[in-house]
Amino acid sequence: xxxxxAKYKDREGKKKKSTKWYIDFFDHNKLRHKIPAFADKxxxxxxxxxxxxxxxxxxSGLEPDAKLNQWLETLPDSLLKKFVSWGLxxxxxxxxxxxxTQHISDYIKTLxxxxxxxxxxxxxxxxxxxxIAGCRFSYFRDxxxxxxxxxxxxxxxxxxSPTTAGHYLxxxxxxxxxxxxxxxxxxxxxxKVRKPARxxxxxxxxxxxxxxxxxxxxxxxxIIIENxxxxxxxxxxxxxxxxxxxxxxxxxxxxxxxxxSDDEPFVQVRACIxxxxxEALQPLTTMSAGLLASLKARISPKDTxxxxxxxxxxxxTAELIRSDLQTAKLPLKDKEGNEICFHSLRxxxxxxxxxxxxxxxxxxxxxxxxxxxxxxxxxxxxxxxAEQKAISFLPNFGNFVxxxxxxIYCKQGVTLRxxxxxxxxxxxxxxxxxxxxxxxxxGLEPTT
Length: 448
Prior knowledge:
Layout: E1 2-9, E2 15-26, E3 32-36, H1 41-60, H2 66-73, H3 77-86, H4 100-113, H5 118-134, H6 145-157, H7 162-181, H8 208-221, H9 230-243, H10 247-251, E4 258-259, E5 266-269, E6 280-283, H11 286-299, H12 317-327, H13 344-354, H14 360-367, H15 372-379, H16 386-390, H17 402-412, E7 414-417, E8 420-423, H18 426-437
Antiparallel strand pairs: 1-2, 2-3, 4-5, 5-6, 7-8
Helix pairs in contact: 4-5, 5-7, 6-7, 8-9, 9-13, 13-14, 17-18
């Protein structure tokens, strides 16, 4: 490899040297190339060394290291295309030169092909377009961690909730992960950017009795609200409260996701509609399976038809359940003062399981949480009767009567002080202990 200044003659025939330096090198096929570099010699030599390293990688059959890959991402389109034509890099590397708008278009087509819901695709496209416009990103090489962090911070300052700002960050992170897997970029520059702390209110829960009352009343009254019947809403509530499936996942279910033929019926939550991007099989209760089987027999749907076709993706389910709670004469808040909304059905489902004797690992799996802290600290609540039920599992003392022992001890007039037995004023001791022995027996004292 040689760095030099080209010599030429001007119009007057005088010999001159070029302003820019040139790089003269042989590629992996031993073909000679000359390319212009920079006006600065040191920068030109640095470019030459990187090209030499790229040639050595091609000769040895090794992949360029991280540093070399980062350098490739900064190269102008014209030089990248030359490297591709010479065989120094793969043609896919020219993806660097495509505008982000084209990559986003390809990404949206991929989501559509995988069967993601229209609502999810619409929100994803809108958020990506807003981010790249707000940050003034035109190419992959323009994307930086600091620019994205500044934009997310601006969203929050402008009144966007931390939860929604987190959705924006998730959108561009997922897009860049896809680009990395598709070898459009070498790495995701914002992979380590953390989502803003959420400030979502704690959701209320229904007790088992309240949940049953809600389902029964909604079915029996069958009131039409926003073009949905009570039967349709009751089915939606029942499935949410007995499977823990989220609203958007439920509204994206198609009949091929409902398996009613086996002895153990289940709902398949496909990876493309699941919040965590993982497929899950949620078991169905006998009542839920029977209701779905009856509905399917009545309407004879196609496998590709949505189960909850009456519900638009933009429907306000919080208003629906609030109306049905009032119809059932149930409180709009739980005992802790937390408002009950549609997501409360998922919270209630997890709480029902947590107050049973089901192993914690099973509950976490059915909740589809990766962290048990989220399952038991955020979602699961203690039901009113659970604490009283819990003490029934404490040791049983049989016929041992605590009050009788206290009476005997009082008569002895003995107390322990400084680990030694000492006589004390018997009257001062007997009065309070006799008072205890005469109170009704509770807790661990069995009746005689």
